[in-house]
Write a structure and sequence with these properties.
Helices cover 63% and strands 11% of the residues. With 194 residues, it is mainly alpha-helical. Helix 3 packs across helix 4 (45-57) and helix 7 (119-126) runs antiparallel to helix 11.
Length: 194
């Protein structure tokens, strides 16, 4: 409860523009240059620079030597995503019992007789499962719900953003695969303690 109250108080100290910068860095999911952040937010570079400097000082954003900015773990926490430690990473990556596996369908009452028992297995199956199935499950929010059940709130939120982007076909498959693969790699590193 104390951690929740602490984070709530911290959120109150960040104004809307700073929170929007954090959300943008999270949504893009890669380092961004100050100019790109300014352009995407439709704000003057000077204004964004002032906010970014405060975010760096507060530990919410990190700056690389090449003047790119990335979201830190504290920045993710302020957005509402729990910190992932080794135990949670291992839990998210582990296999689930048979009754909790993800079953792929191409429509209502149209099972493909293919299932995923772990996040890594899901990542591999996304590469070849038919597009009709991917589009069916994305439209219903099935992928994000199953991944939330696995314990990865942040990845579930990323999949919701993909759903809202209205991608389809191979573009949808590629984006889901890219995001899930990156997250699997990140979780494996955390699980190993590196």
């Amino acid at each position: 409860m104390e951690a929740f109250l602490y984070m709530r108080d911290k959120m109150r100290t960040l104004n809307k523009t700073k929170m929007d910068i954090l959300r943008l860095l999270w949504q893009v999911g890669r380092p961004m240059h100050l100019k790109e952040i300014s352009d995407r937010m439709n704000l003057k570079t000077r204004c964004v620079n002032m906010h970014i400097l405060n975010l760096v000082k507060g530990g919410y954003v990190a700056k690389s030597n090449s003047r790119f900015y990335t979201l830190t773990d504290l920045g993710r926490e302020i957005l509402g995503f729990p910190r992932i430690d080794g135990a949670l990473a291992r839990k998210i990556l582990s296999e689930v019992p048979r009754e909790k596996v993800f079953h792929f369908y191409s429509g209502i009452d149209k099972p493909l007789m293919i299932y995923s028992s772990s996040l890594g297995d899901f990542c591999e199956k996304i590469r070849y499962i038919n597009l009709e199935s991917i589009e069916f499950h994305v439209s219903r929010g099935d992928f994000e719900n199953w991944i939330h059940f696995l314990g990865d709130v942040e990845l579930a939120s990323r999949l919701r953003v993909i759903k809202e982007s209205n991608l389809s076909g191979e573009n949808l498959r590629e984006e889901i695969f890219r995001v899930v693969k990156l997250r699997c790699d990140e979780l494996k590193k955390i699980a190993l303690g590196s």
